[in-house]
Task: inverse folding
């Protein structure tokens, strides 16, 4: 009997100490506030500054401060941004994307004209 109680107590302690992060709603129904004014720090070699942005915590917008991310050679950083889709505001998180200097959707490695956005 005491062994069963001991196992139950250990199990309860383990489950009680395990925290599952609260998942914020994947979208907001109201538009985010305008971005806050931030002073971008001086450039740092090998780093890319990502400005702050509004994040949604499931009930309201909360400000996330800007930060440095290490550069990745041949990649560009797409900063976080809010996009309206079907009356809902969705946060597209910041991410690294393969280099596309002219932003025509074709990676530089396979683009026959990588610096001309008007030529496929």
Result:
């Amino acid at each position: 009997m005491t062994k069963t109680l001991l196992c139950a107590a250990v199990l309860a302690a383990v489950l009680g100490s395990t925290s599952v992060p609260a998942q914020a709603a994947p979208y907001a129904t109201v538009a985010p506030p305008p971005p806050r004014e931030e002073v971008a720090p001086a450039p740092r070699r090998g780093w890319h500054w990502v400005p702050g942005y509004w994040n949604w915590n499931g009930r309201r917008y909360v400000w996330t401060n800007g930060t440095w991310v290490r550069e990745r050679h041949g990649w560009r950083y797409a900063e976080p941004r809010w996009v309206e889709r079907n009356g809902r505001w969705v946060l597209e998180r910041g991410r690294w994307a393969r280099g596309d200097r002219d932003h025509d959707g074709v990676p530089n490695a396979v683009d026959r004209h990588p610096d001309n956005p008007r030529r496929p």
The mean pLDDT is 78. The chain has one domain: 24-120. The chain has one helix and nine strands.
